[in-house]
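This protein record is not my work; I was only asked to verify it. Take the sequence as given and treat only the C-alpha cells as open to question. I have pasted the whole thing underneath without changing anything:
***
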Amino acid sequence: MMVCGFAVAFVACGGKNKAEEAAKMKADSTAKADSIAKVEAEAAAVAAKAKAKADSVAKADSVAKAAPAKKKK
C-alpha cells in the first residue's frame, strides 16, 4: 500500500511538458530583459537631465562673469 502511494505521488508530481517549460522560460527572460531595458532608459533620462542642469548652471555662471560689473553711485 505504501509503494502504491509513492507511485501515485511520483506520477502526480511528474515532469511538466517541455514545451510549456520552454515557453515559460522564454516569457520570464523576455520580462526580465524588458525590465532591465526600462531601468536603463530611466537611468539615462536622469543622467541627461542632470547634465542639462549642469550645463545650464555653467552657462549662467559664464554669462555672469562676462557681464560688466555695475558700480553703485
